[in-house]
Amino acid sequence: MDKKILDSLLIDTGQDRVDHTLRVVEESKKLAYVHSVDIDKATQAAFLHDCAKFKDGKNLLKMAVDFDIILSDIMRASLDLIHAPLGAKIAEHKYNIKDSDILNAIKYHTTGRKDMTKLEKIIYIADYIEPYRKFHGVKEVRQLAYVDLDKSLLLAMNQTIIFLIEKNRLISPDTIEARNQFINN
Ligand code: DGI
Ligand code: FE
Ligand code: FE
């Protein structure tokens, strides 16, 4: 990924987010290698996964509407979720990414979804386990991620759902559908 993109990410998202992003890139590359996924696609998706996590208070709702993103009620109520689909649009239009695998990995990196591709799983889990993450139970997810990707996603989603319930927040149906599928398989 060239320096121009990194500079632009730094301006939009700030140093801490860029540091996180670079850790997700490293984790994604390792996971892609181990799970036989295109390392270049994983690198590009990881670089841009949080490109819409703006450091200054941009109006994410307005940007989403301007990009014709169809917002569910859950997204309107949980602004945290918007940076993922919005990031996919920005990756496409600002960073000129045309590969739908990469765009979907960015779009679903926060919630997951039913029928996730391996690339989507890798970006989701790399974001969850990058070395600075200190969530309860992250160690187990980290170990599983290199052995059994689906099991690691199930555990990460279980923990995310528990976290959201404890905070009394809405749960995205995409996460529920993804989790149900991992339980059934
Ligand atoms: O952007 P990052 O911080 O690197 O990580 P992320 O894209 O996974 O976003 C994490 C945030 O998203 C965290 O505050 C929890 C929230 N989140 C994840 N799934 C859901 C959710 N929030 C709601 N309301 N519903 C969800 O299903
Ligand atoms: Fe994110
Ligand atoms: Fe992230």
Describe the overall structure.
The mean pLDDT is 96. The chain has helices at residues 3-13, 15-34, 39-48, 60-66, 73-77, 83-93, 100-107, 118-129, 138-145, 149-166, 173-184. It is globular and about 40 Å long. It is mainly α and 185 residues long. The relative contact order is 0.13. It has 11 helices and no strands. Residues 49-50, 53, 83, 109-110 line the site of one fe (iii) ion.
Question: Poorly predicted ranges (pLDDT <50, ≥5 residues)?
Answer: none
Q: Which descriptor suits the 3D outline?
A: globular
Mean pLDDT: 96
Query: Can you identify the CATH superfamily?
Result: Hypothetical protein af1432
Distance between the termini: 36 Å
Question: What does the oligomeric state look like here?
Answer: single chain
SSE string, helices as H and strands as E: HHHHHHHHHHH
Write down the CATH class: Mainly Alpha
The CATH architecture would be: Orthogonal Bundle
CATH topology (fold) name: Hypothetical protein af1432
Rg from Cα:
15 Å
Structural class: mainly alpha
Share of helical residues = 55-70%
The fraction of residues assigned to DSSP E strands is under 5%
- Total DSSP helices: 11
Bound chemical compounds: 2'-deoxyguanosine-5'-diphosphate, fe (iii) ion
Q: Into how many domains do the coordinates divide?
A: 1
Main sheet makeup? none
Task: Let me know the number of strands.
Answer: 0
